[in-house]
Amino acid sequence: MTSAPLIELRNISKRFGGVRALDDVSLSLDGARIHCLAGENGSGKSTLIKVVSGVYQPDEGEIFIDGQKVDRLDPVTSIAHGVQVIYQDFSLFPTLSVVENLTLNTFLREGKTRIDWTRARKMAREVLARLDVSLDLDATVETLPAAGRQIVAIARAMLADARLIIMDEPTTTLTGREVERLFRIVRDLQADGIATLFVSHKMREMLEISERLTVFRNGKKVTEGPISEFDERAITRAMTGRDLHQGRFVAPNLAGRKPRLELRNVSVGDKARDINLTLMPGEIVGLSGLIGAGRKAIAQAIFGLRQDMSGEMLVDGVPVTPKSVPEAIAAGLAYVPEDRLSEGLFLTRSIRDNAIVSSMERFAPHLWLDAEKAGAETRKMFAEMAISAPGIDVPVGTLSGGNAQRVMIGRWLMTQARVLILNGPTVGVDVGSKEQIHGIIQELTRKSDLAVLMISDDLPELAANCNRVLCITEGRIMGELSGETLTEEALDSALSREIEGETA
Amino acid sequence: MRFLRSSDAIILAILAVAMIFIGLVNPAFWQMSNLFSLLKENVVIGIMALGVLLVMISGGIDVSFTAFAVAGMYLTVRAMVALDYNGLVLPFMSAILIGGLLGLMNAGIIHRFKMIPLIVTLGTASVVRGLVLGFVGTSNVNINKMPDALVEFGKTDLFTLERANGSTYGLTAMIVIYLGLALVLHLVLKHTMIGRSVYAYGADPEAAKRVGFSTGRTMIFVYVTAGALAGFAGLLHSSMIWLANPRDFVGLELDVIAAVVLGGASIFGGRGTVLGTVLGVFILVMIQNSLILMGIDTTWQRIVVGAMLIAAVTVTALRDRRALV
């Protein structure tokens, strides 16, 4: 060992009430290294970030920085030692300019009472040059895309003389190319002597970017080592404690059946053109494409959320033109949006209230709610979706991401939908739960003769759950993969062809 | 030119168009005497609007400032009458102090209990108005009782002009005080950490806390300044109209908030400029003044102000939403 690690945690424990969020955890982070911290939701990753950044004080254990024992690590000390956390929401000021977002906390740290705008601009220009990116300094941060905001957050951390940047799930909102740029920046930071701690549950980035990997499960460190010692299977096993077998979905025999959903020459504003699509009962059809390719617009149009759809749409052979959500529900359509927290769930309300809200016509036909029926059907859904919660009366806000997503999907099944549109069905759901949700979707599709349209950026998810995948490019269906040709690699190369086509 | 794309430039353009239009309908608008009286009407609403702007940038809404203005004004004038005191500096300091302390109460409640500013200020406004009327008095202090120093001060003109018939009219010196305060607030908001902390807090309170702003201090700055400006504006108002009425300013909240929103400040916080607010106040006062010149009934004026508020909120909300996409 040549020098002391940048930060060393020894036997750290942290309890919240009776729950051990961290249980005798030791972790050592070296300077200028890219370290990845993996684990499912609730495994203790966030608690660890908060211990390192000084937000939480551990109940037991010691913290060493540069080999020196630190008795009490609070946020100010942590920042003074060069620890910077980039939270998932970036903690930026949307209505303020890029310059100001970059420099405010430097001025604050220096205890300035006045703002020197000339110096601020100079600092901002220099740090962006170091990152080799160009941004309009006077643009307000809200006008930047997620990737741009992330760069502002990283640059701000650099201005704070960071030696260790902790990134919490940094790639959730980025497209493939933006992830590449982030990786380049992280490597540049490393060349500048800045260490990065990636907190993630995505395999690809762990394997591609990190040098060392630590896996957490239930507040304990399960395994640690150089990344070369791991593969996807080993990481999944470490994170979930079991082997996962992703069974591939095979559609039942469709011969002689009538299509559930048909789109004929459908166009949606300038987002999608000439979409012809047939969904048979028992089928799961994927929509693959870059963000902005028009997948979401198609889904929203089918569900009556857009008024600029033209062309013909048939559900079970009956032409429908839903102009609103109630009309779409009545036509047997259901849509589970991407962002279930902001677009779908009422967090302070119970599972039951969340489950029945889209089926009010059935449960409350004459103004009064048929509580018995609502309760019975919710309990049935609760069992079918294998939701783990004390009961149907607990608020949805207390559930984990995976269980919340099950409530969301269950709600739509309770509308007696025949066509289910899923947008990012397992975004933000941990690996184990994801597997189960996939199983539930597949089983329901088979059992209830649903037709499912699945939009996802997660290529393995599409490959494993769909019997067909349509590739959408700039609002058109450009190809279809099914059966033997439907593989992760084929989906990936279809996407990269599109990226090349776009840049050419 | 970034300025040409800013909200301030758009408001300036709206103002110019409105002035040309009003001038065409009613040429009397451009008479120097009318313009001077317009500017005079800007002063009190404008100073109050500066306080409301500050609260709005921080993401809150203040409806208590008119009550604080009444408290600052009426308490001070009654004390002057009772003590037979005839000065200027001390009374204005007392009005500022009363407004500031009441603002401190707002800040304390809002910050300590994390409550919605609109509800808190509705409550404090009602309490303060009630206390003034219940414990201090309900009768006006009229011109015959008003302290001379105040009346004389309110009469001060920068310069006077003579009409053809020999009567004179002047431009009130109070406009200098108003624009001076506006300039100071502009500099504070633009160039000091406390000023930027108001924008930061309005943009995202959680993020402001995380970068290390003392948000309690920011809240105190915002509400104490807004209260102090209100108290000052209240006393200035009574010195300009030679009357201290404990039931004054009822319904003025709407006008002032409308002016600030018209000036481009966002009701969602984090956005707003002093220049925009000054222009917004001018537009509002000018339109009200023109309605009077055209002999339109006061009930219709309320309708116009309400409609302007709704239109301005809609436009700024659309702007803010577009920015988020």
TrEMBL record, chain A:
Keywords: ATP-binding, Cell membrane, Membrane, Nucleotide-binding, Repeat, Sugar transport, Translocase, Transport. Gene3D superfamilies: P-loop containing nucleotide triphosphate hydrolases (3.40.50.300). The keyword Heme does not apply. InterPro entries: AAA+_ATPase (IPR003593), ABC_carbohydrate_import_ATPase (IPR050107), ABC_transporter-like_ATP-bd (IPR003439), ABC_transporter-like_CS (IPR017871), P-loop_NTPase (IPR027417). The keyword Cell membrane applies. Residues 7-243, 256-499 form the ABC transporter domain. SUPFAM superfamilies: P-loop containing nucleoside triphosphate hydrolases (SSF52540). GO terms for molecular function: ATP binding; ATP hydrolysis activity. This is ABC transporter domain-containing protein. It comes from Thioclava indica. The lineage of its organism: Bacteria, Pseudomonadati, Pseudomonadota, Alphaproteobacteria, Rhodobacterales.
UniProtKB/TrEMBL annotation, chain B:
It is found in: Cell membrane. GO terms for cellular component: plasma membrane. It comes from the Bacteria. Keywords: Cell inner membrane, Cell membrane, Membrane, Transmembrane, Transmembrane helix, Transport. It is a multi-pass membrane protein. The keyword Cell inner membrane applies. One of its GO terms (molecular function) is transmembrane transporter activity. The chain crosses the membrane at residues 9-30, 89-109, 116-136, 169-189, 220-243, 249-268, 275-294, 300-318. InterPro entries: ABC_transp_permease (IPR001851). Pfam families: BPD_transp_2. PANTHER family: ABC TRANSPORTER PERMEASE PROTEIN YPHD-RELATED, ABC TRANSPORTER PERMEASE PROTEIN YPHD-RELATED-RELATED. This is ABC transporter permease. It comes from Thioclava indica.
